[in-house]
């Protein structure tokens, strides 16, 4: 969770907990200037990229869990669309330029206030160079994927479902969460 401010960023008065008029949630508020501090979830955007029946994964070089594998994805920046964020993260982490085909999965993790948006995409340029957040990146056939070293259970489930659907030639769009402690998706 992000650090909670104690003072108003506009007038420097102390913030207090309260419910703004017309709001449904308690928020940090400033009695001096009326500023309201909102804490909103972070959005992580990424892609499943396929080439010749293989799937692009990157090996993390930074915490959390360096050395584990994941889909190329990362935090959305202000001023970006989710699509732009996903394609930027793919480029930064893998040196691959891609085109988005369609949305594939939206997954909420309320405990850590994150929302994952994963797109289906195809590689249009592969440079073989990747950024400092990545130890390695490569395309894996389904039977070569290091399943036990996938960073996050939801990413593993998204990728497993995608591979099954790819083989069947039919794709869904999924929503899910781990609010109950159990990862689940709905179609």
Layout: helices, strands, pairs:
Layout: E1 15-18, E2 27-30, E3 36-37, E4 42-51, E5 54-60, E6 69-70, E7 73-75, H1 82-94, E8 96-109, E9 114-126, E10 134-140, H2 153-168, E11 174-177, E12 184-186
Parallel strand pairs: 4-9, 8-11
Antiparallel strand pairs: 1-2, 2-3, 4-5, 4-7, 5-6, 5-10, 8-9, 11-12
Question: Brief description of this entry?
Answer:
This protein has 187 residues and is of the alpha+beta class. It has 2 helices and 12 strands, in the order βββββββαβββαββ.
Assembly type of the chains comes to single chain
Major beta sheet summary: 9 strands, mixed
**Strand elements, count:** 12
Q: Give the name of the CATH architecture of the largest domain.
A: Alpha-Beta Complex
Shape: elongated
Helix content: 10-25%
Structure, explained:
- This protein has 187 residues and is an alpha+beta fold.
- It folds into two domains: 1-39, Ubiquitin Ligase Nedd4, Chain: W (Single Sheet); 42-177, Nucleoside Triphosphate Pyrophosphohydrolase, CATH 3.90.79.10.
- It has helices at residues 82-94, 153-168, and strands at residues 15-18, 27-30, 36-37, 42-51, 54-60, 69-70, 73-75, 96-109, 114-126, 134-140, 174-177, 184-186.
- The strands form two sheets. Strands 4, 5, 6, 7, 8, 9, 10, 11 and 12 form a nine-stranded mixed sheet that branches. A three-stranded antiparallel sheet has the order 1-2-3, with no helix packed on it.
- The two termini are 29 Å apart.
- Residues 40-162 form the Nudix hydrolase domain.
- InterPro entries: Nudix_hydrolase, NUDIX_hydrolase-like_dom_sf, NUDIX_hydrolase_CS, NUDIX_hydrolase_dom, Nudix_N.
- Pfam families: NUDIX, Zn_ribbon_Nudix.
- It comes from Pseudomonas japonica.
